[in-house]
Amino acid sequence: MSAPKKVVLAYSGGLDTSIILKWLQTEYGCEVVTFTADLGQGEELDPARQKAELLGIAPENIFIEDIREEFVRDFVFPMFRANAVYEGLYLLGTSIARPLISKRLVEIAHETGADAVAHGATGKGNDQVRFELACYALDPAIKVIAPWREWDLHSRTALLDFAEKNQIPIAKDKRGEAPFSVDANLLHTSSEGKVLENPGDVAPDYVYQRTDDPVSAPDAPEYVEITFEKGDAVAINGETMSPATILTKLNELGKTHGIGRLDFVENRFVGMKSRGVYETPGGTILLEAHRGIEQITLDSGAGHLKDSIMPRYAELIYNGFWYSPEREMLQALIDKSQEHVTGTVKLMLYKGMARTMARWSDHSLYSEKHVTFEEDAGAYDQKDAAGFINLNALRLKLIATRNARVAGK
């Protein structure tokens, strides 16, 4: 790959990406543009601007953007229409943020005339795959630089030496070994590495940052109503809110009640197993509520088909194929299924759990007159079930007869 002339860097303002910024300048002698995304990670972003300026980045080459609404509306909500869960447990909080960051990296590259983008993902993880597949899907001609796969700074000591040599500010707590690595956005917080690397060790309490301890959560349950339109949450307790505001409110409720904690050993796309601690308070509530409204508005055939494709859909997101034609095809199917997923769900939040207590909808398929144990006034003729059973039993009877005949020979 020829040396890039101008690079857009996914920049957090932390030590690692600051080192990457300087390394790009010294290694390639190129101009660097920084992009810092506000995805609801809960951190002040002005320090990122100040540090970029300190490292010689011109003000017009510093992009700091609040993309929380786009994140929830165009990425989180479509994913939740599918009830997407990876390997039965993980709500894909890190995975779903990467396509949007990549999208803006490529767009900013086009806006500024850059010929390359760069990210700070290591060569062992999933994020390098997600960033790069997304970038190439959006612009097949873009150059992608992954410093962790290219440089010779393979130890914390080497990184700190490089930072000191290039006058990069080092936070005092970076002098020692960081206890664990954290990635956060409006949907979740993930913690990995160091004290969490041995899956046989219980995660220390201080690892949890977004949720209160369920044991010490309020002793009284709290009830909340979530209203949906076509599969997306639009209101909480009758108050209409924007997508990001809804998720923010659900995060607050989930935090108080210790909801959404997950200690998980997953299979990374690159081949190894990894242990992480995830906190997805609002997302856990949202998933329960979405399932609740689907129970009365989604036909069984559509619902069962949707559930059967969900693992494949979730795996595509986890592996970085958000912009693939197969994900888009599945999304079209999922979105079609949500045309009547409209109504309200009442949930109970209590000591780490979110449980559906009631649900109602003008689009409901539930018929009390068909399921009642009281007189149903002819809505359902129970005698019809005999023929239904006989037809379905026919092939089973034939198989049993055949097996008995063969066994008797």
Word description of this protein:
The termini are far apart. The longest helix has 24 residues, at 384-407. The model has no long low-confidence stretch (mean pLDDT 93). The chain has helices at residues 15-28, 46-54, 68-81, 98-112, 127-138, 147-150, 156-165, 243-256, 281-297, 300-319, 325-337, 368-371, 384-407; strands at residues 6-10, 31-38, 62-66, 116-118, 143-145, 181-184, 189-192, 222-229, 232-236, 239-240, 261-267, 273-279, 343-350, 353-360. The chain has a five-stranded parallel β-sheet with strand order 3-2-1-4-5, sandwiched between helices. A five-stranded antiparallel β-sheet has the order 10-9-8-13-14. The protein folds into three domains: 6-68 and 93-176, Rossmann fold, CATH 3.40.50.620; 183-298 and 340-360, Alpha-Beta Complex (Argininosuccinate synthetase, chain A, domain 2); 376-407. By secondary structure, the chain is α/β, with parallel strands linked by helices.
